[in-house]
Design brief:
With about 400 residues, this protein is mainly beta. It is built from two helices and 29 strands. About 10% of the residues lie in helices and about 50% in strands. About 20% of the residues are buried.
Length: about 400
């Protein structure tokens, strides 16, 4: 009897897990029986809990046994596609199974672990001794390297689960120059990135990142890189000339080995000149300067605790007068806590100042201030960043929100 293959929509696989049971609410730790455990009440409740767990166990394990005794017998449950090309298009394999049970079985659903994998399966009842198929297709586009994808077959009204696997290796396709270097700077120069976020750089340290380039102009080009906005901490290593069709990288380094005291958010803006012409597009770099905690004892280190890191001002009018909210910063550590830097916004400021110290075991009250006239009417979400010498949480964010009316 022929069967029709139905393409299944992709969803997360449903695989049975372990049942969990809670003890009766009356004997949870927060509402326990008296400490002396006197009387029969406590013993009765414990017995009930034991009986409940035993009953669940007895009903659970037969269910698991039923799942393991699936009547579907597959010719194979694991298929290796071998090596395939990323640009080669989807590949498929048909898994054939036989109903070895005594009753007809219908497949309820077939789910894949990834949107790149599409199952199609036999619809309708499969009689005892009859064969049917499940076709599994894999699309390699966007999945270069080794892969292993699972497909769960649920049948018999959810009682039976069978696991199929397809695997293989995808050879990456050769990307075009515009894909590898998506930023057209002009003059034939293309870059793979124009915004470098270095994250944290410790005092006395340095950190480098590359910017990939390609010359697509068809001729040699001369380049120069200048800082439009300079922190004085950036070092750039770049070729003076890039030959036609050549690719390579520019190395950008934040160097704090000879300078100290640079904390918080630091940024630089770079412009590029090709053959004497200044390009319109720029390169932006940023980093956060923090303490070097390599010799710091965690047990004695400062600990910053904020009683809140978010405040909603609600509806406010756009006016010259500021709106304020008071917060408390406490040092729960054993050494002095220092505010290393505060990154304020034009309309969001604080009374905290760089260099403020909070001795161990003490607190400091401060205000966050919203200048609503600095923002256009509408919904507002804003934040300020501060850096402290707490090795566990060096960078802290305080956020506010408001609805600014005219």
């Amino acid at each position: 009897m022929p069967h029709h293959l139905i393409k299944e929509s992709i969803s997360e696989p449903h695989v049975s897990g372990f049942y969990t049971a809670a003890l009766p609410h009356s004997i949870t730790p927060s509402q326990s029986a008296p400490d002396h455990r006197s009387g029969n009440t406590y013993g009765i409740m414990v017995k009930k809990a034991v009986y409940l767990l035993a009953a669940i166990a007895l009903t659970y394990y037969p269910c698991r046994a039923q799942e393991l005794m699936s009547p579907l017998r597959f010719s194979e449950t694991d298929w290796n596609f071998g090596t395939i090309r990323e640009e080669g298009g989807p590949v498929s394999h048909v898994f054939t199974f036989t109903n070895n049970g005594t009753d007809p079985v219908a497949i309820d659903r077939v789910t894949a672990s990834c949107g790149c994998t599409t199952p199609e399966y036999t619809r309708g009842l499969v009689k005892p001794g009859e064969k049917a198929e499940i076709k599994v297709s894999f699309d390699p586009m966007g999945y270069p390297s080794d892969f292993s994808k699972s497909v769960v077959v649920v049948s018999g009204g959810g009682r039976y689960h069978d696991l199929l696997t397809v695997r293989g290796h995808v050879t990456p396709r050769v990307k075009t120059v515009t894909e590898e270097y998506p930023f057209d700077m002009g003059g034939g120069l293309r870059l793979d990135n124009t915004m470098l976020a270095f994250r944290q750089v410790v005092q006395g340290g340095l950190l480098s990142m590359p910017i990939g380039y390609a010359n697509t102009s068809g001729k040699d080009i001369a380049i120069e890189i200048h800082e439009v906005e300079s922190s004085g901490l950036l070092k750039i290593h770049a070729p003076e000339t890039i030959c036609a069709g050549c690719r390579g990288s520019i190395t950008v380094t934040y160097d704090l080995t000879e300078k100290s005291g640079y904390y918080g958010i630091i940024h630089d803006l770079l412009k590029i000149i090709v053959d004497g012409t200044e390009l319109k597009n720029t390169v932006y770099t940023t980093m956060i300067g923090v303490d070097d905690f390599s010799g710091q004892s965690i047990e004695t280190a400062p600990r910053l605790f904020l009683d809140s890191q978010f405040h909603n001002f609600g509806e406010v009018r756009r006016r010259m007068m500021p709106y304020t909210f008071r917060l408390t910063a406490s040092n729960e550590g054993k050494e002095t806590l220092y505010i290393r830097s505060i990154d304020e916004k034009p309309g969001f400021k604080t009374t905290l100042r760089t260099g403020m110290a909070i001795p161990p075991g003490t607190s400091l009250q401060f205000e966050v201030i919203l200048y609503s006239d600095k923002y256009e009417p509408g919904e507002l979400v804003e934040s300020l960043i501060m850096v402290v010498n707490d090795p566990l949480r060096t960078v802290r964010e305080i956020r506010i929100s408001a609805k600014i009316n005219k």
